[in-house]
Amino acid sequence: MKVLIIEDEKTMAVEMQAFLEKAYYCCDLAHTARLGLEKIEENQYDFILLDLGLPDKDGLHLLQEARKNCSQAAYIILTARGQLEDRIKGLDMGADDYLPKPFSLLELQARMQAVSRRKFGLTDSEIPLGDFNIDLHKRSVFFEGQEISLSRREFDLLSYMLLHKNRPLSRMQLSEHIWGNFSDDDYDSNYIDVHIKNIRKKLSAFASVDWLQTIRHVGYKIKL
Amino acid sequence: MKLFTKLTLFITLSKMVIAILFVLLLPFLVEDIAFRYNDYYLKEQRKKVLNVIWKNGIDAYLQGEENYGSYTMLKEEYISMEPAGKNNLPDTIATLQRVVEGDTLTYRVLSHIFDYHNRRYMLEVGKKTATISQYNRPLQKVALYVLFGLIVFTTLVDLIFTRLLLRPLGVIISTKLVNRKFPFKDHIPPIRTTTTDFRYLDDSLIELMGKIKEAFEKEREFTSNASHELMTPIAILQNKMENLMVEDSPDEELQKKIVGMMKTLNRLKKIVHSLLLISRIENDQFSKTDSLSPYTLVTDVMEELEHRLEEKQLRFNMNISRQIILHNLNHDLIFQLVYNILNNAIKYNKPGGQIMAGDKLIPGEAYQLIISDTGMGISEQEIGTIFNRFKKVVRTEQEGYGLGLSIVSTIAEYHDIKITVSSTVNAGSTFIISFPS
After folding, report:
1. Which of A160, B133, B230, B274 has the fewest Cβ atoms within 10 Å of its own Cβ atom?
2. Where, by residue number, does the polypeptide cross the bilayer (chain A) (predicted)?
3. pTM of the predicted structure, to 2 decimals
């Protein structure tokens, strides 16, 4: 998938690029609105990640103009302004999602995947995980056609780790995904352990769950 | 009391005092004037008599007799002349009794001694005292009517004028002071007045409001800039660390350190978030137009916190009326308020403890949400400062950042919500959240 990152903070753009390229996205960078618009005219993008605070043009104006040229792309607004009005305005103007800075790159990728499922109707919603299959639409786990019941949060955790497979995830990152702004790291990270223990218990009754690894001092990883 | 009411009262009362004084003094004044005039009249009469004697000789009166006496028809006035002794007395005017045709009557009498052809005579001119005061009553009446009329008239004029005079002040109060809500967004034109005091007051108010608005705008701008300026480097750091974590380095020690750094960064992020939230609330950047049911709200909050409840094996009892709907609030902020209080109730509870959420409706006054726990409690000296920013209390357990309750107090203040805390150490705390009706 082709991604354009319009972000004036160069270091930030580079980090996003590095992260997304590891997840097999193909990224272009633009540091000003003018450059961004030029790139949009020249190329076809699947995703446009747009910072609102650009030096030469307000991001919301850019969004309007960009959508004329490249209407099929999915737009995700990134902003440090964080005001509710901006969020509403952005979504009204046709943005597909909105992420306030500072955001986790894991979260960005999760949102991008959710948008692509929603917008591009990707059908590979059933993903293999070891001997299991995970259906993201139905939000359930199957073993040879038999459904295994997981709690809402257990499923959230499992699918998040699957999305970021082969990447060590800290307890804090996991709890932030599950409880958002209300997460209380020292408190909830213990609870992540409880969830993981439950997931292991429920799934290992059917098949091996060696792919769910504990990483000492850090957290967990799904290795496939 | 309003200035106009005060002035009205003062004007009316002062006029009444003047009227009463005048009414009390009037009889004496009129009496005094009547007597003075009468004395003057008697002197004039004496002058006339002496003139006649001077011109026509004393016999014009005496006509050969030793003495002379004459009185008017109703004995109101009399004149008498008789020889006097050797002693030379000055003129006197006195109130005396005189016998006229057998009646004893009281007269105001002027006695005058004069020489005529080496003989000494005494002239008496008298007027009955009853006739002196005969006009007093009608005079007093007229004076009272005139006084009454004048007082009513001047009071009316005073009030109308005062009202006109004070009108600019009223305009200043109604347009610039009453019902003005911070921030002052709309511009209100200066008032029209020729009174320099009001002009000065109005100008000063406009200037002050302008300054406040400017300061407010600056702070709002600062908040927005600060959030941008602080959040961007935090975001960069966070993303860099996230990328570092994936590097396929088997170095356990390094990864441990990165996780530690991310925790610290997360803490910084949360502090900045909390400060920005407080600052945004204080800057009036949240609308207060939502309605919410306390029952649903507490249920939602508890759903978020369920896992923490389970971990500590706490029991949660809820006894909240489902019918109550609260209006003119910001849903997200109230959620945060209740969340922080309930979260603390869990955090500082003992394993196996209890949390109660109840409510109470005081008709016409307030709706109270009462949250109590069986936790470690707050000591008496700490209870006054728990809502202060960065105020940490001595705890053995893992600490928060000391901002949770100051967010609570900021949100409460923003909504005119009162929070009272009572607590017993090692027994538990009770937070009463009173929503204004």
Report:
1. B133
2. none
3. 0.64
